[in-house]
Design goal:
Keywords: ATP-binding, Cell membrane, Membrane, Nucleotide-binding, Transport. With 341 residues, this protein is α/β, with parallel strands linked by helices. It has helices spanning 47-54, 87-93, 115-126, 132-145, 162-173, 192-209, 220-226, 244-249, 254-262, 333-340; strands at 3-14, 21-32, 36-40, 62-71, 80-81, 98-101, 180-184, 212-217, 229-234, 237-243, 311-312, 320-321. The longest helix is centred in the middle third of the chain and has 18 residues, at 192-209. Bound molecules: iron/sulfur cluster and magnesium ion.
Length: 341
């Protein structure tokens, strides 16, 4: 399919004190129209930083230091580099081209405004000709998309349950027909039953409306049910990416294997979970070589020196991992060095 978003070499730093912290390093991926890309990693892996960079919602001290975020509009015009847009031009893209759903709907919803009024505000800011009455009617339609009945439109956010608020925030993100919706752990604060309902709704709405999604979570198993493709982040880098079922059933990076074993699939019976020993690295002083080497049970001589790059790991096209276990020639250090340096 056609690309909606092409991210090329994106790096984000936090410029605090003397040492800049690289929260995202050299991130590249392509998102196709209507595709759901899941991004998984522990907290501190850089996944939330990636989302705020993609949506240009980052605030100092976070700074995008390299890369492009090419957005391809529906009209087939030349792609726009979101990194290069000033705030005024970026606001034209927010809501209509891309929108965001945050972990807590309370961050998106105004606590002192009725739900319908918040929808009306967003809709009328993009379409001045829309009457208040029509905007409220549209709010009712949008809430119905996520199973919230019309009588709730006059409620304030605190009158809704947590799950309802989260669904209202998703409906609000869809209000102006965006081509891309970026979601940061939108189901973390709700119970498992509500989580499944929300994921099913996202899948149904994607089918009906055709938007693409970047969905960030720490829970890899959840992405198995939702995502078309999955990218695994560690220490600010994508360390594995591939078609969801292939990556989940045959992970090629030891970190992905550990992450998978940390969370049971939603349908599976409970079993012993093997977490990943150790903690993510301090990005002020990232480890040399493979960033995962201090925690990796499969590390080899040289892993603490050489940074592995993403390489195809078949048999499924598009499956890539950055781990020396997948390199064909890892036996001699000197040969390997010339490959990647
Ligand atoms: Fe482990 Fe080495 Fe692979 Fe890194 S490159 S994940 S340390 S085996
Ligand atoms: Mg986060």
């Amino acid at each position: 399919g056609q690309a909606v978003l092409e991210v090329r070499g994106l790096s984000v730093e936090y410029a605090t004190g003397g040492v800049p912290v690289r929260a995202c390093t050299d991130i590249s991926f392509t998102l196709r129209r209507g595709e759901i890309l899941g991004v998984a990693g522990e907290s501190g892996s850089g996944k939330s930083t990636l989302i705020t960079a993609l949506t240009r919602l980052q605030r100092p001290p976070a700074v995008t230091t390299a890369g492009e975020i090419l957005f391809h509009g529906r009209d087939g015009s030349a792609p726009v580099d979101l990194v290069a847009l000033d705030g005024r031009r970026m606001r034209r893209y927010r809501w209509t081209a891309l929108s965001i759903v945050l972990q807590s709907a309370m961050d998106a919803l105004n606590p002192v405004m009725r739900i319908g009024a918040q929808f009306a505000d967003v809709l009328r800011a993009r379409d001045r000709s829309l009457s208040k009455r029509d905007a409220w009617a549209r709010a009712v339609e949008l809430l119905a998309l996520v199973g919230i009945s019309a009588d709730r439109v006059r409620d304030h956010p605190h009158q809704l349950s947590g799950g309802m608020r989260q669904r209202a925030a998703i409906a609000l993100a869809l209000a102006c027909g965006p081509e891309l919706v970026v979601m940061d752990e939108p189901t973390t604060a709700v119970d498992v039953v509500m989580q499944r309902q929300i994921l099913a709704q996202v899948l149904r709405l994607r089918r009906e409306l055709g938007f693409a999604v970047v969905f960030v979570t720490h829970d890899l198993s959840l992405l198995l049910e939702l995502a078309d493709r999955i990218a695994i982040m560690y220490a600010g880098r994508i360390v594995e990416v591939g078609e969801a079922a292939a990556l989940y059933s045959a992970p090629k990076h030891p970190y992905t294997q550990g992450l998978r074993d940390s969370f049971p699939p939603l349908h599976a019976p409970l079993r012993t979970l093997h977490g990943i020993p150790g903690t993510p690295p301090d990005l002020r002083r990232p480890p040399a070589g493979c960033p995962f080497h201090p925690r990796c049970a499969q590390r080899m001589t040289g892993c603490e020196e050489r940074l592995p790059v993403l390489l195809p790991v078949g048999p499924k096209a598009g499956h890539e991992a950055a781990c020396r276990l997948n390199e064909t020639n890892t036996d001699t250090d000197t040969d390997a060095k010339t490959d990647t340096d």
